[in-house]
Amino acid sequence: MSDLTPRQSNRPSRRRREQRAYTLTLATGAAALLTAVTLVLAVIGITSLGLMLLFLVITVVLGWTLKRTLSP
Questions:
Q1: What is the predicted pLDDT for the residue at 50?
Q2: Which burial class, exposed, middle or buried, applies to 47 when counting CB atoms under 10 A from its CB (0-12, 13-18, 19+)?
Q3: Could you tell me if 39 and 52 are in contact, meaning their C-beta atoms sit under 8 angstroms apart?
């Protein structure tokens, strides 16, 4: 108890969290749009459903990361 200096926090600053959330929001939106476009192209027969599933997984991971960034 002799050291009265505050502990260093491992948590990033509020500004850094805000920037990360903004970037993840843009990336999640773009990935969701790409997933939807690929789904339409797969239904038409231009691309495969495997590519759409890959984009869907990327979108889910980005959304999950965004949710973790925004939760306290």
A1: 94
A2: middle
A3: yes
Q: What is the rounded average pLDDT of the residues 64-69? A: 95
- At residue 1, the 3 state secondary structure works out as coil
Q: E strand or H helix at 40, and its extent?
A: helix 14-44
The residues near 65 (Cβ < 8 Å, ≥ 6 apart) are 24
pTM of the model: 0.80
| pLDDT digit string, tens, across residues 12-42 | 888 999 999 999 999 999 999 999 999 999 9
Q: How many CB atoms lie within 10 A of CB 32?
A: 17
